[in-house]
Amino acid sequence: MNFVDTIDERVPIRRALISVFDKRGLDLLVPGLLRANPSMSILSTGGSFVAIAAILGACAQPGAAGNLRQVSDYTGQPEMQGGLVKTLDFKIYLALLSETYNPAHAADLGRTGAQPIDLVVVNLYPFKETVSHAGVTPEQARANIDIGGPCMLRAAAKNFLRVAAVVDPADYPAILAEMQAGGGSLSLATRFRLAQKAFAATAEYDRAIAGYLSGLELAEVAACYPGPRPGSAS
Q1: End-to-end Cα, the chain, rounded Å
Q2: Distance between CA 11 and CA 183 in Å, rounded?
């Protein structure tokens, strides 16, 4: 188990990973990040990548589109069909959990070609909203259980010593203002506050899933899948 005794008050935000279901505010966030740090590298996935590419394509800053990269290009692994696996990769979590002054972590980054990620912007599939609708099926609910998003938020929030975990679009303006005033960096106080909010969000998300599943009967679940094949799973 690692115990850290040296951290930085302010951390420059050089690399961001953005993967959001709720894309409100991206048109504010993405150009603002590049104004604070024009050389910033942005990793993204799926629909978020498409939305960011469109924003950067319309950005007045020359060459802005070159700041964006697919997560699959970074990891070397294509997305699983249906987007089921996009960010669950060693190079992503190495980039999130590596500690600034740990030489073993630096060696792992060099060995794998990974680069530290300083900012994670993630919000989750709308599970609670989905199950609140009349007539929603267990299969529709199951499909809206986010896996990669909570994992990234938890990893980034655990490493608030170096990484900012952003779960709420309402925080974008304050983050951008601080980065603009601080030469593209974020303070320990901000990183810690964002970590608190991220863990609260993932805890609430898990409670919603557990509460929904505990209210289901197995017969209700089985009815979603006509023609089950007992013993066919491997």
Answers
A1: 35
A2: 10
State pTM to two decimals.
Answer: 0.90
Q: Identify the DSSP state of 64.
A: G
In tens, the pLDDT along 184-232 reads: 999 999 999 999 999 999 999 999 999 999 999 998 888 888 876 666 6
Answer whether 169's CB lies under 8 Å from 25's CB. Answer: yes
CATH superfamily of domain region 10-222:
Methylglyoxal synthase-like domain (3.40.50.1380)
Tokens representing residue 96 in the block: 């999130």
Residue spans per domain, the chain: 10-222
The DSSP line for 116-170 is ---EEEEE---HHHHHTSTT--HHHHHHT--SHHHHHHHHHHHTTTT-EEE--GG
Per the listing, tokens 């810690």 go with 192
Residue with tokens 């188990």: 1
- 36 closest CA partner among 168, 157, 175, 160: 175
CB atoms within 10 A of CB 60: 6
With tokens 């994670």, the residue in question is: 120
Give 7-10 contacts, CB < 8 A, sequence gap 24+.
7/100, 7/161, 7/162, 7/188, 8/100, 8/161, 8/162, 8/188, 9/187, 9/188, 10/182, 10/185, 10/186, 10/187, 10/188
